[in-house]
Write a structure and sequence with these properties.
Chain lengths: ~220, ~325
């Protein structure tokens, strides 16, 4: 790869990193905390491109692939396919403080599921809750509400699933806001044997996909 | 500049232009294929792995270029113990304090070898830095709140594996297996610095893309439920999770959370996942092959796999 081509490839890489940083598109792929480091590295790549004086190894020809995927395809956040492939992820916590005020009260899918599974719903009681996530279909045909959580990037994305008991959109990957109450009981996630809790659905409304797709 | 060089220069840019055009065409013609859930998930995971690695890679190539250009040759000779057998644990311990991940430590280890550090010590650093740094250990503590011993087990098994691999290299390794790519030389120090960093970035970045494609493919294709079948067998479980760590190529700062969700496996199996992953995976293998040569990677990676698995199995058996 000669000097000009290498410069173009480095420029494209730096530009793509800056673009996903500045448009917020990076939130689909990596955790929020990476932002300053991504921005700094994008700028540094541009500096390296501007000062580039050398020919580069052939393997550099592959660098445009992720760049073009970012710029042209703009891949969607992880959805129901990834959720079906991975097991329910929950971490036990020591205590479950009372829910904040409000009726219905907004809680994360992760918080609801942890309270439902590990606290057996005690801190949920009969309170009405609102959860936001996307729809998916469980192995036995059950309607699921899913929110993916990730630590570094989408390669480590893990699903938190809740079985919806009630009328909800059947099309997978529809983002919905669900209002409902805790219902005792759970089903077993056949992927890893973890428990998936229930939510008794009062209403479900389609909503636009959130800017931060992961919890 | 000769005529052939002029010819080649035009060729390279034309190839790039043609390539970009081809991708645009593919985007239009393959719109339906790109829309299927499996391809979409693959693309998301692929760009995520690359994007996640970019800051660490840029940090790594900057540090390695700084070592190459600004650190005097005598520095490491003075800083590390004279005897290679002692330099190995010293270098592994240095790896513990430097917060980096596997993508950054490969070019840094390459720069250390170039600077005359004994390869055994540089390799111990290469293995220890991503596996044992404070960020990784803190993440492990958060991911396993009920099991504080997991942090200790991970540090102990990881350190043991790095040091054993360094000593193994002293005993059996051959310098001719290592083939470092040629480095460009600049006319001033800053030119040389930018040249080395840019070169390493394109080089390691290209191999990162190879590794990310392989990792994304396996990430999408391996159904999680296959694992359920081997989880109950203690020996098979350890082997299965070690292999999974190699195939998934998850960043060492995140692997503890994935291990924590693999609840159907024994603690020892999950420890093996945490010890093997930062030392051998598809992405790392591609990058090691790029930096140290294929002959090196083909011997080093399998040996590391066996040593890391053994260290994890012994630690787990003793502790739990």
């Amino acid at each position: 790869m000669n000097r000009t081509a290498a410069t173009v490839v480095l420029l494209l890489l730096g530009a793509a990193v800056l673009k996903v940083c500045l448009t917020g598109q990076y939130l689909r792929y990596v955790k929020e905390g990476l932002w300053p480091f991504l921005l700094a590295s994008g700028l540094l790549v541009l500096v390296l491109a501007a000062t580039n004086r050398h020919r580069h190894p052939k393997v550099g020809w592959l660098l445009p692939l992720p760049v073009l995927a970012l710029l042209l395809v703009a891949p969607q956040p992880l959805g129901s396919y990834a959720a079906g492939n991975a097991g329910m992820a929950l971490t036990r916590s020591d205590e479950y403080p009372p829910l904040p005020d409000g009726d219905p009260v907004k809680v994360t899918v992760l918080d609801y599921a942890s309270r439902a599974v590990f606290d057996e719903g005690r801190s949920l009681g009969a309170r009405r809750v609102v959860l936001t996530g996307f729809t998916a279909t469980g192995a036995d045909g059950a309607s699921l509400l899913v929110r993916m959580i990730l630590t570094c990037c989408a390669a480590d994305g893990r699903p938190v699933k809740v079985v919806l008991d009630g009328r909800v959109p059947s099309e997978p990957d529809t983002w919905i806001e669900v209002t409902g109450t805790f219902r005792p009981g759970s089903v077993v996630d056949e992927v890893n044997g973890e428990r998936i809790p229930f939510l008794k659905v009062e209403s479900a409304t389609p909503v636009p996909a959130p800017e931060r797709p992961y919890e | 500049m000769t005529d052939t060089e002029v010819g080649r220069r035009t060729g390279s840019v034309e190839v790039l232009a043609g390539f970009l055009l081809l991708v645009l065409l593919a985007r239009i013609l393959l719109g339906d294929v790109l829309g299927t859930p499996i391809v979409q998930t693959w693309t998301t995971v692929f760009v995520s792995i690359v994007l996640q690695a970019v800051p660490f890679l840029v940090f790594g190539v900057t540090l390695s270029a700084a070592i190459a250009v600004f650190v005097p040759r005598e520095f490491f000779a003075k800083a590390l113990p004279k005897h290679p057998a002692l330099a190995v644990p010293a270098a592994a311990a240095t790896g513990m304090v430097l917060p980096g991940c596997e993508c950054g430590s490969v070019p840094v280890a390459g720069a250390l070898v170039r600077k005359g550090v004994t390869p055994a010590a540089a390799l111990a650093f290469l293995l220890a830095a991503p596996a044992l740094n404070p960020v990784v250990l803190a993440a492990t503590a958060i991911a396993f709140p009920d099991r504080p011993s997991m942090v200790f087990a991970r540090a102990a098994a990881g350190l043991a594996a790095s040091v054993v691999m360094g000593w193994l290299w002293l005993a059996l390794g051959r310098t001719e297996w290592i083939k470092l790519p040629e480095h460009a030389h600049g006319d001033s120090r800053w030119r040389a610095f930018a040249g080395a960093a840019g070169h390493d970035l394109v080089h390691a970045g290209g191999f990162l893309v190879v590794g990310a494609m392989a990792a994304a493919t396996l990430n999408v294709l391996i159904p999680g439920r296959w694992l359920q079948a081997v989880a109950d067998d203690p020996v098979l479980g350890v082997v299965a999770l070690s292999l999974l760590a190699v195939l998934l190529s998850i960043c060492s700062e995140a692997d503890a959370f994935v291990a924590a969700s693999l609840t159907q496996f024994s603690l020892t199996a999950r420890l093996a996942f945490l010890v093997v992953g930062p030392m051998v995976d598809l992405k790392l293998f591609a990058m090691q092959a790029g930096t140290f040569g294929r002959r090196f990677a083909a011997r080093f990676a399998p040996a590391t796999f066996v040593v890391a698995l053994a260290c994890a199995a012994v630690t787990g058996t003793v502790l739990w």
